Amino acid sequence: MQNITLIGLGAMGRALAQAELEAGYEVTVWNRTAAKADALLRNGARNADTLVDAIAASEVVLICLSDYASTYAILDQPGVSELIEGRIVIQLSTGTPADAREMKQWIGALGGQYIDGAIMVYPPSIGSDASQLLIAGESEVVAKVQHFLDALGGDIRNLGDEIGAAAALDMAVVSRLIAITPAVIHGALICESEGVSLQQYASMFPEGDRARAVVLSIHADEFVDNVSASVDVAINVASSIKRQAQTMGINSEFPDFVLGLYQRAVTAGQRHQDTSSLIKVLRNQGIAG
Ligand SMILES: NC(=O)c1ccc[n+]([C@@H]2O[C@H](COP(=O)([O-])OP(=O)(O)OC[C@H]3O[C@@H](n4cnc5c(N)ncnc54)[C@H](OP(=O)(O)O)[C@@H]3O)[C@@H](O)[C@H]2O)c1
């Protein structure tokens, strides 16, 4: 099995497609906005004029769209869903464990096989030793596509056949990430109130640590738009974690708290700014605002 179809050529989908090409596989690509395929086509990818052509081209279909709703929007239409029978669908869009369970059921009912995954790195790391993906699915199905997964990077973790496991571990890791910025901002407020320099505070964290970047951004008073760590992204992530908590009946005070903080940044017009911009709200209003 040497052919793979890539659906979704955003920043991440393009990196995945490029890694499959570099591993020597025949890659067919499709994206709603066709122009995003241009560089991949120059690098040897095959163009599919239609979504139907794209899916028909390979037994394995790798999907990387914004979310699961986008996946249903393109696959759940006449002439397309019928093609899923006999194919293996690998879903690498971010979602919740419940999303993964629902999609496995839907793909299975259409006669397809399903693997769910989560990508734990930024696009430039895909295909390198620094890459990390979490994978969940039945072992015989995963075995059939292992070579395609291996092309995506160094640390491909198979979590077994509990289909929600990759999304669950992804959420558990991201839960820590959304906690870092508010915690570090409170640290910055302590430093500011006691006259300790923010440079000194930043130096307590290693190079490359998100906490260091947050403090330096506050020190520079620069809260530039940053799509990978915007207030908007933090709200989306915290909302998913809250939905998961509600679905599974676990405590949701933490995502509620984080959402409440970031919601205030949205109200202040900072939706597209880096999450470190939250300090502007907390300085002005105090934590109980
Ligand atoms: N980027 C990262 O650092 C990163 C890291 C880990 C995981 N991820 C996950 O990877 C997934 C993709 O991320 P990305 O960075 O590639 O996002 P992106 O650059 O925003 O791309 C989103 C993709 O989804 C497509 N899309 C959205 N809604 C659609 C719809 N209704 N119908 C058809 N296509 C639709 C877009 O098509 P158009 O081009 O036509 O708009 C585009 O191909 C997300 O689930 C994200 O959470 C990303």
Short description:
The protein has 289 residues and is an alpha/beta fold.
Please report the first level of CATH classification, the CATH class of the largest domain. Alpha Beta
CATH fold title of the largest domain: Rossmann fold
Number of strands: 8
User: Regions with pLDDT < 50 over 5+ consecutive residues?
Assistant: none
Shape verdict = elongated
Average of per-residue pLDDT values: 94
Could you tell me how far the N terminus lies from the C terminus, measured between alpha carbons in angstroms?
58 Å
Count the DSSP helices.
12
CATH superfamily of the largest domain: NAD(P)-binding Rossmann-like Domain
Strand content: 5-15%
Main beta sheet, described? 8 strands, mixed
Tally of discrete structural domains: 2
As a whole number of angstroms, the C-alpha radius of gyration is 21 Å
**Helix/strand/pairing category:** alpha/beta
* Small-molecule components bound: NADP nicotinamide-adenine-dinucleotide phosphate
Report the helical percentage: 40-55%
CATH architecture term of the largest domain: 3-Layer(aba) Sandwich
Compressed to H and E, one letter per element, the order equals EHEHEHEHEHEEHEHHHHHH
Structure write-up:
The model has no long low-confidence stretch (mean pLDDT 94). The chain has twelve helices and eight strands. The longest helix has 30 residues, at 165-194. By secondary structure, it is α/β, with parallel strands linked by helices. It has helices at 11-22, 38-42, 51-56, 68-75, 97-109, 139-150, 165-194, 198-202, 210-220, 231-248, 253-267, 278-285; strands spanning 3-7, 26-30, 46-47, 60-63, 88-91, 113-119, 132-136, 155-158. Helix 7 (165-194) crosses helix 10 and helix 10 (231-248) packs antiparallel against helix 11. It folds into two domains: 3-162, NAD(P)-binding Rossmann-like Domain (Rossmann fold), CATH 3.40.50; 168-285, N-(1-d-carboxylethyl)-l-norvaline Dehydrogenase, domain 2, CATH 1.10.1040.10. The chain has an eight-stranded mixed beta sheet with strand order 3-2-1-4-5-6-7-8, sandwiched between helices. The termini are far apart. The structure holds NADP nicotinamide-adenine-dinucleotide phosphate (NAP).
